[in-house]
């Protein structure tokens, strides 16, 4: 049984197979898709807010002919409010369904509880730890936009300390050849020391930048993120967003072939005036999440990943 908990489980060959499967599902007739997960029931348990991740997972199940039972705001509107442990949630819900997709506020609690689930569990974002399916769709987007997954400069901006999407993406990039990562972040929001050490021990070249313009110069991919205000106290979010935002004039520093990604939601760190530019790929990126999650669910529930 395969629990998709971290990108560390995915070698590059597995990522490439997943992307190929996503492309195949993308082009299939919708009526043909309905047979892929027919008879399967998936639970989506979201203890933290979500729009794209929850809806794309649920849409993925329905597109493939499966069905969904869902608990939104489960931290407040489930027996978690009464003190029920996550291990017990998995023990019980796992008897009702064929797979569980979960977003949780504590990566440590999720890691400890997953072994109690009798069905596959997919991590849909865990605290400030990882968000593996976001990284998979990010890499799929890079491949679709640039046609390669090697020899690239990737600029990563914003909250790198609590941004779980960043943590997962950077770990996936260590699987690839010829990668240069440029980092630009508020002083208090740099990468966790353990992750920075992982990068430095890999073949990735890491550069710290001192301005947005410096980060964007010569970048093939710009990965912008928001400040994770829900995990911060006493931090001037507005100041940080202003200082680290991408504005129209920054496009002068960005190569014509480059692409700007963002896991969304954005809250001021990308000027909406940039949206019409071909280099703004974040809404195509969000769409790609549907097909990657379709592919992952199909592989897990039909036995390709075990």
Automatic annotation (TrEMBL):
Limits of the Aspartate/ornithine carbamoyltransferase Asp/Orn-binding domain: 151-298
GO molecular function, one term: aspartate carbamoyltransferase activity
Signal peptide boundaries: none
Keywords: Pyrimidine biosynthesis, Transferase
The UniProt record lists the keyword Nucleus: no
Pathway named in the protein's UniProt entry: Pyrimidine metabolism; UMP biosynthesis via de novo pathway; (S)-dihydroorotate from bicarbonate: step 2/3
Alphabetized SUPFAM superfamilies for the sequence: Aspartate/ornithine carbamoyltransferase (SSF53671)
UniProt protein name: Aspartate carbamoyltransferase
Organism the protein comes from: Alicyclobacillus fodiniaquatilis
